[in-house]
Design brief:
Elements lengths: L4 E2 L6 E5 L5 E9 L2 E9 L6 H17 L5 H17 L1
Antiparallel strand pairs: 1-2, 2-3, 3-4
Length: 88
């Protein structure tokens, strides 16, 4: 088993040489202060660094779309604008 190597061309993409000669691709990104690392596929499975990078972008957007919105988040964003408009 090899060690993980970061891609020089695509930020957040890592790959690891496996004992059977295959290459596993992983993507890394930080969301809400937490680092995520997800295995996306292998070279024998048809994956490449470019496909892994595309999947990384998809996963980042998915994490944004699926994050819950709380009342406190909405109030924090819009309450100051409402108060300001009432004062002036």
């Amino acid at each position: 088993m090899g060690t993980s190597i970061s891609s020089k061309k695509y930020e957040g993409v890592r790959f690891k040489s496996l004992s059977d000669g295959d290459i596993a691709y992983y993507v890394r990104f930080t969301k809400d202060g937490k680092r995520h690392e997800v295995k996306v596929g292998t070279k024998f499975g048809g994956w490449s660094e470019k496909l892994a990078f595309s999947k990384k972008i998809e996963l980042e957007n998915d994490f944004v779309a699926n994050s819950p919105i709380t009342f406190a988040m909405v109030a924090e964003r819009y309450l100051p604008a409402i108060v300001f408009s009432l004062l002036f």
